Amino acid sequence: MRFFALLSSVCLAALVTLLPHSAASQAPQTVAQTPPMGWNSWNYFADKVDDEGVRAAADQLVASGMKDAGYIYVNIDDTWEGERDATGVLHTNSKFPDMKALADYVHSKGLKIGIYSGPGTKTCGGYAASLGHEEQDAKMYADWGIDYLKYDLCSFIPDVMRKQAPNDEAEQMRIMHAAYVKMGKALEATGRPIVFSLCQYGWDAVWEWAPSLGGNLWRTTGDISPHWDRIYAILEQQAGLEKYAGPGHWNDPDMLEVGNGKLSMDENRAHFSMWAMLAAPLLAGNDLTNMKPEVKSILTNRDVIAIDQDALGKQASRSYSEGEVEVWAKPLAGGGLAVAVFNAGDNRYSTHPFHLDLAKLGLHGAQQGRNLWTGKDVQLAQNMPLEVASHGIILVRIEQPK
Ligand code: GAL
């Protein structure tokens, strides 16, 4: 037995050496070594997205300086899909006359392009999804030059999970898992590096199993909306997930709402800062063509982006909270530390400032740092009073924490 096992492993090794590289080993995906950055059509345009709008977004990423700041992916969300023909090929609808030409355009700007589908019969918007056509769709994406796929569970829940395993939730989860494995393999088989983004709202502790099937990011919650309460609720659900994030595989608390709805500038800054602290994908979700300068300056704050994109790839932990104020810390490459002091409350004033307890962050005595929103050097001292605006944040980078 042992002899045959040894012989077969020797033969296998010889075969692997003889085979051309691509056939011998599926090169591990090297995409998303830092959290993906870019833009996605859904949060602002939803079903209004079209070819022209995607080209405009690509143009604006370049013109606004966002591309230079790291925003690379131009992601088309739901509502691009048309009908499948008799051979199973899924065609685009009239809003997207030529997806290959659009991909070429986006690539010509030095950007990458993403698309959206799901494992069910229909997407969340009721458009054709990939059930039974996974390999065919993956190949088509690769032929178009797609670089990123967001794969959204949606109709797979009623169409397959609940139908095949009524009243058996554990079995439903196994079916869901298999559907993501299937698309992961289909993408891998194309040989094209394609970021694989799982969108199934955090079900069944997705962070525990998504990396093993090639998931580069996975939504941890239901949908975001441009309302402070929703953003805060999502943020609260990220504490404790930090150990699952790292180069190539990230928790995704959903796309950015910076610049959308009626968020105040403090709220936009806090949202952006905390997503950077979480090492979250930074996918802008606003109308780039009509972006206010103050929104642009938030989205292009390179010091904050550097926290998100830090090579160590650690997600922040919530060090402690006191009343409505939370203190989060994110270890950085080279031994640095980013510290966020965030006021979730509505009405704390200087009559009762927050006192920062550095000892709770494992820090000893005064720390030299830089406030990443003012750009000024600051010294943090034990118990120092800090006045943080309602829904505001103080974000400090300490190069040499003591
Ligand atoms: C939701 C998803 C959103 C968006 C939408 C499109 O399920 O969470 O981010 O993709 O579907 O229909």
What's the arrangement of secondary structure elements?
Blueprint: H1 2-18, H2 21-24, E1 37-40, H3 42-45, H4 51-63, H5 66-69, E2 73-75, E3 81-84, E4 90-92, H6 99-108, E5 112-117, H7 134-144, E6 148-152, H8 156-164, H9 169-190, E7 195-199, H10 206-209, E8 217-219, H11 228-236, E9 250-252, H12 265-277, E10 282-284, H13 293-299, H14 302-308, E11 317-322, E12 325-331, E13 337-343, E14 354-355, E15 367-371, E16 377-380, E17 385-386, E18 393-398
Parallel strand pairs: 1-2, 1-10, 2-5, 5-6, 6-7, 7-8, 8-9
Antiparallel strand pairs: 3-4, 11-12, 12-13, 13-18, 14-17, 15-16, 15-18
Helix pairs in contact: 4-6, 7-9, 8-9, 11-12, 12-13, 12-14
Bound molecules: beta-D-galactopyranose (GAL).
What does this structure look like?
With 402 residues, the chain is of the alpha/beta class. It has 14 helices and 18 strands. The protein has helices at 2-18, 21-24, 42-45, 51-63, 66-69, 99-108, 134-144, 156-164, 169-190, 206-209, 228-236, 265-277, 293-299, 302-308, and strands spanning 37-40, 73-75, 81-84, 90-92, 112-117, 148-152, 195-199, 217-219, 250-252, 282-284, 317-322, 325-331, 337-343, 354-355, 367-371, 377-380, 385-386, 393-398. The protein has an eight-stranded parallel β-sheet with strand order 9-8-7-6-5-2-1-10. A six-stranded antiparallel β-sheet has the order 11-12-13-18-15-16, covered by helices on one side. Helix 12 (265-277) packs parallel to helix 14. The N and C termini lie far apart (58 Å). Bound molecules: beta-D-galactopyranose (GAL). Beta-D-galactopyranose binds next to loops.
